[in-house]
Fold this protein.
Amino acid sequence: MPEETGKITINCTVNGEPAALAAYPFERLLDALRQSLRLTGTKEGCGEGECGACSVMLDGRLVNSCLVPAAQVEGSVIKTIEGVAEGGRLHAVQQAFVESGGAQCGICTPGMVLAAVALLEQNPRPGEDDIRRALAGNLCRCTGYVKIFESVLKAVDGSH
Amino acid sequence: MRAYLPAYELVVPRTLEEALGFLGEGAGVWRPFAGGTDLMVLLEAGRLAHRKFFSVWHLDELRGIEVSDTHVTLGALVTYSDVQASEVLRREFPSLCRAASETGGWAIQNRGTLGGNIANASPAADSPPALLAHGAELELVSAAGSRTVGYADFHTGYKQTVMRPDELIARIRLPRPAPGAAHFYRKVGTRRAQAISKVCLAGLAETEGGVVREVRLAVGSVAPTVVRCLRTEEVLKGRAVNPALAAEASAALVGEINPIDDIRSTARYRARVAQNLLEEFLSQLSPPSRS
Amino acid sequence: MSRAELIGRPVPRKEGREKVTGAALYVDDIEPEGVIYGATVRSPAARGLVREIVFGDRIPWDEFTIVRPADIPGVNYVALILNDQPYLADGVVNHPEEPVLLLAHPDKYLLEEARRAVRVEVEELPAVFTIEESLEKKEVIWGEDNVFKSFLVDKGDVDSVWASADFVVEGEYTTGAQEHLYIETNGCIAAASPEAGVTVWGSMQCPYYVHKALVKLFGLPEDRVRVVQTETGGGFGGKEEFPSLVAGHAALLAWKSGRPVKMVYDRAEDMVASTKRHPSRTRVRAAASREGELLGLDIDFVVDGGAYATLSAVVLSRGTIHAAGPYNCPHVRVRSRAVATNAPPHGAFRGFGAPQSIFALERHLDRVAREVGLTPEEFRRRNFIRRGETTATGQVIHEDVDLAGILDRAFELSDYHAKRERFARENASSRVKRGVGFATFMHGAGFTGSGEKFLQSVVGCEATADGRVHVLAASTEIGQGTNTIFAQIAAEALGLDYERVEVVRPDTGNVPNSGPTVASRTCMIVGKLVESAALGIKQQLTSAGLLREKYTPEEFERACREYVERHGSLKSSAQYKQPDDINWDDEHYRGDAYGAYAWAAYVAEVSVDTTTYEARVEDFVAVQEVGRVIHPVLAAGQIEGGVAQGIGYALYERVAWERGRMANGQMTNYIIPTAADVPPIRVHFLENPHPGGPAGAKGIGELPMDGPAPAILNAVEQALGIPFNHAPLTPEAVMEALEREGALV
């Protein structure tokens, strides 16, 4: 093999806890979370930033973790799907997804939930058009999105 | 993940000076890496040929939006989300905002930067047509100093630019348009979101009594680079907008672009739709006619 | 005891909480101790002879496990129907991306580098890439004539009608391939050794298909092979037969390396290597009278099966039987063929051949109506099948089918007539042209003909000492809601709370073979067995004198405890028995093709922007009769999801083929609808309980795939006045047609 870069240690905060990721500098945040921390709720759907299944919150913003190299998250604050429910209590979005059929096969669900949570943080009372735009980066092949929109609207109603 | 990661390097300088130092190490040894929305896709597909990168993501010197009487200046790391959140951009640069809102989904818009989009030099990129229509200039920096180039002169060929290997895009300068200027931006990509454009046209025009005083037109995905349509602009300048002029301009436009067939669309479609988009823009300039 | 009825109630999805918290474990989330990773080296050519496999420099090959055909302990084919597809190409390749060699290594990144360092040198042979080339036998690439299978359905004497009919209308319709694009790619983990046998965990629809294939691949007795389904991130048919291949590959590497092997495809590999919906070509010749009576249908239906037979025969069968639609037509002939091309095998995909042939018929009937001088609606109304009439296979419809009523409801909900009139008026002066169109159709539930009789599916139930009930079946939860509806059905049968029933994870070591999770059979066929097995528990308790006919949950619990203490366990099982009144003649393709049909009318409203030639669906109404609805939220979710896939099929999803290989195998370039693209989808169920299904339910899963494409293209025809006969309808095709017509802009 040609000259090689070794793994580095990256310190960051994940779901409120300090974490040290052992990763190659160019390792996808997605893989670092799944391998190093065994946080497997973050899913890989496409590996090209198209499907949103790997969405996480990075320093308060929704990102595709497949497009973030580990070296860039030193000192960052990360929230994954595992950090959305607090103390075993589901977030209003999660609760609504369970009740309104927002999750079918479930593989897009973690990313979809995070995108919806990110939307509500930015806009607590979104209309259906806002929801469509905010979730357009998260592909779902099961639901046709209808029940997802209903779930998000229900979460909006439920939290007011 | 189809790349052999141990073969790749990514270092994270904390200051612009340190970053420029990497660029000065030798022609093309190190390359900048911003939000990663293009480069990571290449990496993942095993098609990222270059191996040594330095991250510019944390360089505050390259962020921020400044407003003067004549210009709005954007740091190269301004993201698509930043663009949409800026009041002055929303008010005066609607094409750029539209481009930003139609680039990928939210997660992409939070990471993709204007500087990265420009440097990546894809003819299918969404913001370059808008930047050309808005008459952007770029400030390039290196350890030796900085220089300003017109964005219209920046792209020289497929993925080729006038940037030297030791330079970095620092800022994008946009002249504030005259009040009442007409803006047009339309990206055509089959679906409403998360699409790669098949053709994209941006335009800015100032008219007086139905006569075109100033106009800038740019088209994406129809040539090896995004195209500023100077000849079509010449056809339009100083003339009254009417269907005959639109037809003339449309004919000129076809002469300035060189679309191809690929897996996303056909040359015929791209050329025809580019013409239709131009006609749509021009129809918005002429006073509504009642027949 | 006051217990609300469970059937028809939107109880929470069984595994919903795990899914929304990220706790649900999909195959890639599982990392057994000592696991190594597997990769597949594939053919670069469409057809040819493998001359050499060159292992590149700079890779420490001695660290790798390498599996070649000679390493296969049993037989080198994927056991399914004809067994013509090898696990590893042995000297000859028949499609691009065909597996040639397997590699495994503990380092994923090095594994990938190694995969790319292997060069497969192929001496290319002439190949066949289209249905036409295959039918013309430009090159014979499979069997004697490139034909995997053919069928003939013959009702009445269709050739007797042409001469005297007032109208004879012919047309040709084609559909492209479609990628399933489940968001979870294919993947399996295998552990295997001569001592322990073979165990596979993976993403799949049909554990017993995988089981059958592994038994042959390894030459092992059935009890030495175990297949466990992990949480599965979507299937849609794409994980019906294909996982047998992935599982086998992972298991071969595990067998040779002595370590557990994980093989999970990345998206690019999944898209180019896995199955797609069969492309099709349908020619329809229809005869009608001046009064609008459909007198005869002669249909020639051909599907492209790709390089190996796999499931093409059964896909063709369903497409053939559905080709003449829900119409009362005295003379019908359907001739059909599945042919070979040098593309990866096409496979099961929701609808299973029916969307293709229904697309042709429903487009064609709009045309026939026009020729006859009736509206599309009126023409269909005069020919809808009714109780007592017969389908193309001569099946007498015994249920009270009311297609006219379904259509009325769909028109009412969509405001069809007003829109049709308004668009006709407004289109002339608008750059955006609008249209509204519809399709009426049926979909048979369960395996075709005698399929269910041969399957003899079994479901088990077990009650524990604390009165909880476990349902044991191989039917998989793939998002559609199997766990939830089975629990509802069993709980309802036993008068228990929903929470008292759990559905056990499918594991061939532990659950009986309830058949594959396909063919819209899970609710109606398997659900009925769940109901019977649950009732079997009750029956055992009453026979033992531990329970009265009417009981409270507490009494049930006490009875269970008593029974388990006395006998050790309380189990029951139910096996499918074909009702006596179902008769199917497989040789002549005549008789009762399906135990029941779902009936539907879908209305699409579209706009076509003549600046960009893009067609969009603006509104969609789906009305169907599926018997009794077990779970309204899940059922609507099935319809909405299927309609969205149908919209993709109609307008967006084009596989760009280059010499048998998918050239746009990325999510960026293979376009499915996003949240911003789907219209409001309004779903309405008309309920008509069916005695053959649990609590009156029929099948539902595939139905929504059938209607959207023809409804949408029918709507586009109103918008533009141009008939389009190919799906997907791309903007490029719209532009070409408009330029040809010179009509617009």
Q: What stands out?
A: The helical segments of chain A are 29-36, 92-100, 109-122, 128-134, 146-158.
